[in-house]
Amino acid sequence: MKYGTKLTDWYCVSWLATIAFVALFDETKAQWQQWGGSNRDFTVEATGLADKWPEGGPRKLWKRELGDGYSSIVVDGGLLYTMYRAGSEQASVALDVLTGRTVWEQRNPSPYDPSKDAEIGRGPNSTPLISGNRIFTIGTQSVIHCFDKQTGKILWRRDLVDELGARVFRYGYGSSPLAYKELLIAVVDRPRRELVGHGQETILEAGEARSVGQARTLMAFDQRSGEIVWSSQDFIVDHSSPLLLNFRGEDQIVLYLNEGIVAVAPDNGQLLWHYEVERHGHDMTPLWLDGDIVVT
Question: Quick one: which of 108, 102, 101, 114 has its CA closest to 85?
């Protein structure tokens, strides 16, 4: 599918799968509050599922059109949430899971810089995050919005580029944020002097000293206020989303980087370990399977 066409079919297939899921299971089990589900492994515990679709496919409950984008869908309390592009604006929307009716929608300016590479689309690319009574989004231009999930009221916003000097990504921001206790944890990074190919860094830049003042590969924000709690590390990042895991009683945030895999302590961002791999554009979210971290 070429970019520029409406992604209606993609969205509807995702919604229908979610609707069937909600209808089959009780509300507690039917929540899908972040990218990849509760464990970011794209799985859900379920019993009693059919081995195959009925002839003609699953019954269509409803269908509606939104706009372009790669943001996936999160589910909570009978509502579906996602983001899409509407011209020069980014829309964050809540829909009734049973009817597709818009419960609330917020549109915010998101002009796309024509000098940037739009061959894979103009976003949004990140998936919303639900935590408590709030929902968080990060748009193509690296702006965080915190909404009341029931009403759509904007509680706070942070422009990562204008306020914090974050890196402007070639294809727009693409990582999905993570919740830990009362923290919102997001990939930020800093400007890089020269990018080559798909996020590749020059050898000179990669070898520069990592000063404390530039440590912003990951940043943690207070979910209630948006205030910075910690800022950590100075590794080159791409579009991978962080993963929260627990190993032998210790919580770790794991991120797949341009230069390898790192783990930091979620309370303060302290580096726990770093495993180097061949430098390349690494965009996948790591998987935590039976005690192993899986990446490709």
Answer: 108
